[in-house]
Structures are given as structure tokens and as C-alpha cells.
Amino acid sequence: SVRTFDASGRVRTEVVGDTARHYPDTQVIEIDAIRVRSFDVQGRLTMASARQGVTNDDSSELQLIGNAIVVQEAQTSPAGKTTPRMEYRGEFLHAFLNTEQIKSHKPVELLRGSDRFSADTLDFDNIEQVLQLRGRVRGTLVPKAH
Fold first, then answer.
1. How are beta strands 11-16 and 121-125 bridged, if at all?
2. Distance between CA atoms of 3 and 11, rounded to whole angstroms?
3. Among the residues of 51-142, which ranges form H helices?
4. Distance, CA of 71 to CA of 111 (rounded, Å)
5. Is-above-0.90 flag for pTM?
6. Of 117, 101, 13, 104, nearest to 57 (Cα)?
């Protein structure tokens, strides 16, 4: 396992796996059966897993390969606004933890609450709240019960 900490000493990212290989010349770590827990500056948790992961030394950039899943649980802001649970699935997901972006050049599935989307590529920026799905995009929107 590898942990990184923020300036105040709180855990920022924790990466765990079955086997790891570190390559000092490229500053890359390959991890089999990777599992990740990452906290943003507001303390919100993002979890990820895959058959294999490739990360840089500070765990700020993560490539998830094989049955890749990234999950952000539902949250309520201090102002009372609720953000639904988000789940990203695919054979390849590239997560940039410091900039809160997820990208993939391979087919993906996105679950947002009860809504479901699929596409050939994904580019999501959590800070800007912009999601771009390209290629064969399909979506199912489920109306909210009143």
C-alpha cells in the first residue's frame, strides 16, 4: 500500500493492491488488483478499483486497466444541494486525482443516481462539472418520484 498526505497531515490518497512493481527510472508503479481511496480538498471520498493500475509516485495520476470502476458516493453540500452517486465503468479509465478529471478513449458506462449512459469515449471534469461523451452515446433518464 502507498499513502499520500496533504499539508495538514490528512490522508489524501491510499492505494492498495496484491502486488506492486516500482520503476524508479520512470517514476511509475504498477499494481495488480488495485484499490484506491482518494479525498478531495473538501474531504469527499472517491473510490476506484481495477485488475491492474499504473500510477505515478505521488498517486496524482492513475490508469485503471481491466474492469475499471470509479465511484463517488452521493453527497450533500453545506447549502443543502444533493449530488447523486456517480459510477464510471470501463476496461480503461484514466483518473487525474488532483484536477478531479476522468478520461477514457475506450467504451464506458456512467451511472448517475438511477440514470445510465454509455459512450465510446469519456472526458469528465468534476471541478468544472462538464461531462463529454462521444461516439455511440446512449442514455436512459429515470424521472424522479415526487
1. unpaired
2. 7
3. none
4. 9
5. no
6. 13
* pLDDT tens string 6-32: 888 888 888 899 999 999 898 899 999
What confidence tens digit (pLDDT) does each residue in 73-129 have? 888 877 888 888 999 999 999 988 788 899 999 999 999 999 999 999 999 998 898
Separation CA 32–CA 117 (nearest Å): 28
115 φ/ψ angles, rounded to the nearest 5 degrees = -80, 150
Catalogue the long-range contacts made by 110-114 (C-beta closer than 8 Å, 24 or more residues apart): 110/86, 111/85, 111/86, 111/87, 112/84, 112/85, 112/86, 113/74, 113/84, 113/85, 113/142, 114/142
Residue 7 gets which letter from DSSP?
A: T
Instruction: State the pLDDT at residue 59.
Output: 75
| CB 34, CB 50: distance < 8 Å | yes
DSSP state of 59: S
